Amino acid sequence: EADIYQTPRYLVIGTGKKITLECSQTMGHDKMYWYQQDPGMELHLIHYSYGVNSTEKGDLSSESTVSRIRTEHFPLTLESARPSHTSQYLCASSEITGQGRIGYTFGSGTRLTVV
Amino acid sequence: AQSVTQLDSQVPVFEEAPVELRCNYSSSVSVYLFWYVQYPNQGLQLLLKYLSGSTLVKGINGFEAEFNKSQTSFHLRKPSVHISDTAEYFCAVSDVRNEKLTFGTGTRLTIIP
């Protein structure tokens, strides 16, 4: 059972629109991530956060922005959507344990299509 | 820096036949290793992970993987596949120091009835 929720699951939107992809987790995990996944391709880390008021850029440059005002909430925003932003966006979270950071939980993803 | 190579982008297998999905990694430090499965239009689900100890790791849905440090490999196996195993499989490595999770390019497993 997923404890990390992403909405919407699917979104088709016109070029130039502002969009926010929601991600919430109920596990109290400190670290959260956004990955971008093009069809049939690997996942690329675009943003991550160590905790409240912490956000960092990932390996893949992205025009999106993120915020972490609450531990459980990590929304991703595109100010002006373009067709090149069409992709699947996966949110994840993890917690540190005695063995290190070993438990990553993923949401079901948001499939974004910009027309 | 760490990296993951999944040598096969697509693997077709007949139902009830065995399968092996290959994964090799590169890292200069100690790592944790993971296999995730992604069903169509879904997120990623953890199949199994290697942290330490026994090199043979058993996961969900009858899958297992063997960590081979000398060959820097973490191949995934199942002795008899089912139609429901059709999915994309991702190998991932985590650097235990900087906690970064790096994914391979994925292997699409297709089960032939």
What keywords describe this structure?
heterodimer, A: 115 residues, mainly beta, seven-stranded mixed beta sheet, four-stranded antiparallel beta sheet, 11 strands, B: 113 residues, 0% helix
Structural category of chain B: mainly beta
Outline the biggest β-sheet of chain B. 6 strands, mixed
Portion in strands of chain A: over 45%
Number of strands of chain B: 12
Helix content of chain B: under 10%
Q: Which whole number gives the mean pLDDT of chain B?
A: 92
Gyration radius of chain A, in Å: 14 Å
Q: Radius of gyration of chain B, Cα only, in angstroms?
A: 13 Å
Notes on the structure:
The complex is a heterodimer of chains A (115) and B (113). Chain A starts with a strand and ends with a strand. In chain A, the strands form two sheets. In chain A, strands 2, 4, 5, 6, 9, 10 and 11 form a seven-stranded mixed β-sheet that branches. Chain A is globular. Chain A is mainly β. Chain A contains no helices and eleven strands. With 113 residues, chain B is an all-beta fold. In chain B, 0% of the residues lie in helices and 53% in strands. Chain B contains no helices and twelve strands. In chain B, strands 2, 5, 6, 10, 11 and 12 form a six-stranded mixed β-sheet that branches. Chain B has a four-stranded antiparallel β-sheet with strand order 3-9-8-7, with no helix packed on it. In chain B, strands 1-4 form a two-stranded antiparallel sheet. Chain B is globular and about 45 Å long. The model of chain B has no long low-confidence stretch (mean pLDDT 92). At the A-B interface, strand 9 and strand 10 of A face strand 5, strand 6 and strand 10 of B.
Short description:
In chain A, the strands form two sheets. In chain A, strands 2, 4, 5, 6, 9, 10 and 11 form a seven-stranded mixed beta sheet that branches. Chain A has a four-stranded antiparallel beta sheet with strand order 1-3-8-7, with no helix packed on it. Chain A has 115 residues and is an all-beta fold. Chain A is globular, with a radius of gyration of 14 Å.
